[in-house]
User: Fold this.
Amino acid sequence: MNKIKSNPYVKSVSQKSITYTDEFKRLFIAEYESGRLPREIFESCGFDIEILGMVRVNKAAKRWKSAYTTSGLDGLTDTRKGNSGRPLGRELSMEEKYERLLAQNKLLQAENELL
Assistant:
C-alpha cells in the first residue's frame, strides 16, 4: 500500500480500493485514444502491474472509458466530496435556478466542442 500511495497519480489507498487523481484519468484517456494499451499507460506512470494486477487495471480502464464516452472529461472527475447525494431541502431561488441552467448550458457546449 505504501508503494502505491507514493505514486503522484494516487489520491488515496485502502485495503479494498485505490483512488486515482483526475489528472491521471485524463492522461489515461489521452494516451488510450492515441493507441496505447492500459497496461503500458499504467506502467509508464510508475505503477507496478504485479502489485495492482491486470484485473484492476482493466476494470479501471473500462470504467474511465465508459465515463468519458458518456460525460466527456467531466465524467472523469471525482465528485464524491462535492455531491453528498442528498436532495436540497429548500426551494431554489430564480437566481439559483438561472445559475444552474447556465452551468448546464456551458457543460453541454463544452461537450459539443469536444465532439
